[in-house]
Amino acid sequence: MQLGNLLANVPDQLPNELFEDIIVTPNIRVERILSDGHSTPEGEWYDQNENEWVAVVQGQGVLEYEDGRTVTLNIGDYVNIPAHVKHRVKSTKQGSTTVWLAIFY
Fold this sequence. Notes:
The chain is mainly beta. The protein has a single domain (18-104), classed as Jelly Rolls (Sandwich), CATH 2.60.120. It has strands spanning 18-24, 29-35, 52-58, 61-65, 70-73, 78-81, 87-92, 98-104. The strands form 2 sheets. A 5-stranded antiparallel β-sheet has the order 1-2-8-3-6, with no helix packed on it. A hairpin with a 4-residue loop joins strand 4 (61-65) and strand 5 (70-73). The two termini are 21 Å apart.
């Protein structure tokens, strides 16, 4: 059994986004992502081979899709992003760590 807490061990300072694998199997990967005012560099897009279900546990994040749509995720909000749908993190709340839970399948 593996026991943990998504809100534990959050660093006081995050010069870069922090990506931490929680569970990795051949069919699924669960990841905690910590952001503090971070965004994907302008012009860069995630184009993943896997579907991604992502939720905001704490904070706020704004996702942008290549077609110009944006989605704002607040605490408890989630979105399912199909494989190869180009997207990026447009912004995360500055001065308050955003905790994401991402499941890749």
